[in-house]
């Protein structure tokens, strides 16, 4: 068996001190050790595996070497960001995935199928992998191979962890212990005028966000394409996939780079898809994050099929999740107030917009990797 501190210290020698994940009993010793030592290490407990991966990706873009941890039964939640975020944008992450249901090992029935197919899933996703060692003397060679791949390919590398790999480590304190929780203040800006278009709203956002010191993370679909058509700046990142992951990516980037203001431009359909991350943002409460949802009540880029947003309050949900400041409305004045407000973040804005998009909307003329490298050079986290 490997002591959790042996793994963490071996990883630290290679610059890795930042972790995100979802628990598994095989990972319990490692997660407990990270929580016990949170003054020296960062561990983000995510609502699901896809959010954890996107959060770690955001931290990596911010200049942190990051690891994402998950159970293989939750690997399906991470397929989308593995194939359309880290693969497409070339974001290097160490993936530690447990091997529940390993053939020949007795386990619960819900793990049997995934246990048989996990290696094939990695191979299908073109995700290089090897079995996590049980001998501490093998840690350095395994991490060296992983590091070489991350540096050469700038894509994830996976380690598949078997049962009883890690020695026990008791949990000495609760996660998020001592973190302040602020009382949310909900302010409403409803107007009688017609809702603005997405392009009108984006024009106002661009005017309110100087290129220096701010990063705009735009969700996939027409929102990112309209932002590109309006103003293509070095501080923009257009997520061309990984639907629903913009807020978790923004969370990781905001925590990794407190010197920057991170603005997540989300859509109603995307926000609904991974709503659990609102609770994670509220819990970790990065003061430099602004989360803005443009809500036109439809999936605009796939033919305007209705979402269910008409029957819910994103602002009410964000408030319940612990965002210290929440605004909602259908007037561009909401944006002025949201960006001008000098209260601690994270701040949440829910702006109703009307459906529709300009004709002949262009797509970014840079590849996703080129857009990301440009952003990283702009914020000084490598290129």
Short descriptors:
single chain, 383 residues, alpha/beta, Rossmann fold, 2 domains, six-stranded parallel β-sheet, 14 helices, 15 strands
Alpha-beta content class: alpha/beta
Number of helices: 14
Under CATH, the topology of the largest domain can be stated as: Rossmann fold
Mean pLDDT: 91
- The CATH architecture of the largest domain can be given as 3-Layer(aba) Sandwich
CATH class of the largest domain: Alpha Beta
Number of strands: 15
Helix content: 25-40%
Number of domains: 2
Globally, the shape reads globular
- Strand order of the biggest β-sheet: 7-14-15-11-10-8-9
What's the name of the CATH homologous superfamily of the largest domain? Thiamin diphosphate (ThDP)-binding fold, Pyr/PP domains
Q: Residue ranges: pLDDT <50 for 5 or more in a row?
A: 178-184, 189-193
Main sheet: strands, sense, barrel: 7 strands, parallel
Into which percentage range does the β-strand content fall? Answer: 15-25%
The run of helices and strands is HEHEHEHEHEHEEHEHEHEHHEEEHEHEH
Radius of gyration: 21 Å
N-C termini distance: 38 Å
In short:
The protein is an alpha/beta fold. The chain has 14 helices and 15 strands.
Please provide a written account of the structure.
Helices cover 39% and strands 19% of the residues. It folds into two domains: 4-161, 3-Layer(aba) Sandwich (Rossmann fold), CATH 3.40.50.970; 185-379, Thiamin diphosphate (ThDP)-binding fold, Pyr/PP domains (Rossmann fold, 3-Layer(aba) Sandwich). It starts with a helix and ends with a helix. The model is unreliable at 178-184 and 189-193 (pLDDT under 50). The chain has helices at 4-12, 28-36, 49-61, 75-89, 112-124, 139-153, 198-208, 222-230, 246-256, 268-273, 276-284, 314-321, 333-340, 368-379; strands spanning 16-21, 42-45, 65-71, 94-98, 129-131, 157-161, 185-189, 214-218, 236-238, 261-267, 289-295, 298-299, 305-306, 325-329, 347-352. The chain has 14 helices and 15 strands. With 383 residues, it is α/β, with parallel strands linked by helices.
């Amino acid at each position: 068996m490997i002591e959790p501190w042996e793994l963490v210290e071996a990883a630290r020698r290679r610059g890795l001190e930042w972790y995100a994940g979802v628990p598994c009993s095989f990972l319990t010793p490692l997660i407990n050790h990270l929580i016990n030592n949170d003054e020296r290490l960062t561990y983000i407990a995510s609502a699901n595996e896809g959010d954890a991966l996107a959060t770690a990706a955001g931290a990596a873009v911010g200049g942190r070497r990051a690891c994402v941890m998950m159970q293989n039964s939750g690997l399906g939640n991470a397929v989308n960001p593995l194939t359309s975020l880290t693969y497409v944008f070339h974001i290097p992450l160490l993936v530690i995935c447990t091997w529940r249901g390993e053939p020949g090992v007795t386990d619960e029935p819900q793990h049997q199928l995934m246990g048989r197919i996990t290696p094939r899933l990695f191979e299908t996703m073109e995700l290089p992998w090897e079995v996590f060692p049980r001998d501490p003397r093998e840690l350095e060679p395994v991490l060296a191979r992983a590091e070489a791949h991350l540096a050469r390919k700038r894509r994830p590398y996976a380690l598949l962890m078997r049962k009883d790999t890690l020695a026990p480590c008791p949990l000495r304190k609760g996660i998020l212990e001592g973190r302040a929780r602020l009382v949310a203040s909900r302010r409403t800006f409803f107007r009688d005028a017609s809702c603005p278009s997405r392009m009108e709203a984006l024009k106002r956002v661009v005017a309110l966000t100087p290129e220096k010191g701010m990063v705009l993370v735009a969700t996939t679909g027409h929102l990112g394409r309209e932002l590109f058509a309006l103003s293509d700046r070095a501080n923009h990142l257009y997520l061309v996939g990984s639907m629903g992951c913009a807020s978790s990516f923004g969370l990781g980037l905001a925590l990794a780079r407190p010197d920057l203001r991170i603005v997540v431009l989300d859509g109603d359909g995307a926000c609904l898809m991974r709503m659990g991350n609102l609770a994670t943002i509220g819990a970790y409460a990065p003061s430099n994050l602004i989360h803005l949802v443009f809500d036109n009540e439809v999936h605009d880029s796939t033919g305007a099929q209705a979402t269910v947003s008409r029957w819910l309050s994103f602002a009410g949900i964000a408030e319940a999740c612990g965002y210290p400041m929440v605004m909602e409305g259908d007037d561009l004045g909401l944006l002025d107030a949201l960006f001008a407000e000098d209260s601690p973040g994270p701040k949440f804005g829910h702006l109703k917009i009307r459906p529709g998009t300009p004709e002949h909307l262009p797509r970014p003329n840079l590849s996703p990797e080129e857009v990301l490298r440009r952003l990283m050079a702009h914020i000084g986290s490598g290129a």
